[in-house]
Amino acid sequence: MSGSIRIIGTGPGNLSWCAPGAISALEKSTVIVGYQTYLDQIAELCPQTPRYGNGMRREVERAKKAIAFAREGHQVAVVSGGDAGIYGMAGLVLELLCLDDTAIEVEVLPGITALTAAAALLGAPLMSDFAAISLSDYLVPSETIFRRLRAAALADFAICLYNPTSARRRGIFETACSILIETLGEARPVGLVRAAFRPAQSVQIGLLSELSRMELGMDSIVIVGNSATKIARGRMISSRGYRLTENSANF
Amino acid sequence: MSGSIRIIGTGPGNLSWCAPGAISALEKSTVIVGYQTYLDQIAELCPQTPRYGNGMRREVERAKKAIAFAREGHQVAVVSGGDAGIYGMAGLVLELLCLDDTAIEVEVLPGITALTAAAALLGAPLMSDFAAISLSDYLVPSETIFRRLRAAALADFAICLYNPTSARRRGIFETACSILIETLGEARPVGLVRAAFRPAQSVQIGLLSELSRMELGMDSIVIVGNSATKIARGRMISSRGYRLTENSANF
User: Fold this and answer.
1) Which end of chain A is more exposed for a tag (fewer CB within 10 A), N or C?
2) Which chain A residue has its CA at the smallest distance from B90's CA?
């Protein structure tokens, strides 16, 4: 039997939010490859299936290992937290397969990505157009990050910040906060979600002026509202512009 | 028992991609409210639970009905296809609740949104920063849409177009194609997915020069690649910039 790779998004890290299609793909696999933290989140699924896990920044090694397993005839599941296609493993595995002449069947399966999980906990901050920007400068120059941030803010997108900070690069987050305040003002609503739908979950809603003092880490997502976002009843709500108080053309 | 509203994203419209948490929230409800097409997609779930469905552009009526049911003491499920927080029902229900003084408990639950479902079928077009833009001018002036499109293209975001066209407003899509070609050139990879993970699914990959001739409808999502997106092995792949052929700092 020839090998295959399924690249699977497991959602926020709580099996209630991992789709049945993802679970059934895991059940079909003969080996599961992933970042160790994500393997731990699905520990109770398919406990008999061998796993290959490793640590942060070893994603190229992980992807190569997945391809090596498939070449041996394995049905490989590569897991990413959230959705594998958003800052996840999908691109890397597909890129490496393009350098490879083996016929390995590959499929990408969607998951609930961090921005939708965070948005749900904050209220409804993404009802209009939005942009997703990673603040990690591991593979992207910080000038590119700041240019995109400024462009998104000036065009009135709501903005989701992935990887807002790590111990190593707090400076990028601080510059990002300054750029956002400079373009949007201090009073723009902002939300911060840590560990969405996991035991350590925390949700904070405040103003842009407070963002640089909020406590955040690798498991955090920041959502900056657009010009139509307000804070009401403890939630961030971006109005899409319905007329709600009249019997108008909306009916 | 006092009433509550759970706003639930049911994913792409195939129950394999609807999270267990969403299904369990539906099972707790005493009435389900939604756009009729989405109610049809979950017809086999909780068949005994009463439903209130209506048609397109009647979302304000739907949201008001949900609140009315909750005021009567119902545990109301409001369903949106995809994720309820992305161009879905979450914002409208929360906005209306803010005009209301009744204490109704409300919760937003995430789903797999159209952009991740489409991206998975196309390959990995969203590995870097991206923007989501709706081409519907129902509530947003077309000038705002075009301004955001141009800003996103110039800042090298991959771009997901929601609601790319309808019979009524083909012109906006054509102008959008012209703006994209003008800023990105004709050779930029683009993907079009219709009815992702549903029986009528279709996936097309091509170049921006071909986009205006692709067949698309209300159930379509368009993803325009960024400068690092190529077409290989029949898929759109956006490189995140890993060095793959050397034993480099990636290991």
Assistant:
1) N
2) A124
Q: Decide the pairing of beta strands A123-124 and A235-238.
A: parallel
The pLDDT of residue B248 is above 60: no
Ranges of chain A with pLDDT below 50: 247-251
- What dihedral do alpha carbons A179, A184, A185, A186 form, nearest 10°? -80
Rounded CA-CA distance A227/A242 in Å is 15
SS3 B42: coil
Q: A167: which 2 tokens?
A: 């111990």
Distance, in angstroms, between A28 CA and closest chain B CA?
A: 15
Question: What's the mean pLDDT in B163-169?
Answer: 79
Q: Quote the minimal CA–CA distance from B50 to chain A in Å.
A: 23
Domains of chain B: 4-112 (3.40.1010.10), 115-238 (3.30.950.10)
Partners of residue B67 in chain A, C-beta under 8 Å: none
Instruction: Please state, in angstroms and rounded to a whole number, the distance separating the CA atoms of residues B11 and A112.
Output: 9
Per the DSSP assignment, residues forming a β-bridge with A230 are A237
CB contact under 8 A, A90 and B117: no
Nearest to A110 among B17, B86, B251 (CB): B17
pLDDT at residue B101 in the model? 67
ipTM above threshold 0.90: yes
Residue B68's nearest CA partner among B31, B29, B25 is B31
pTM for the whole structure: 0.95
Kindly report, residue by residue over B169-186, the tens digit of the pLDDT.
778 999 999 999 999 999
For residues A111 and A9, give the distance between their C-alpha atoms in angstroms, rounded to a whole number.
Answer: 4
**So what's the pLDDT on residue A245?**
62
For residue B251, the model assigns a pLDDT of 29
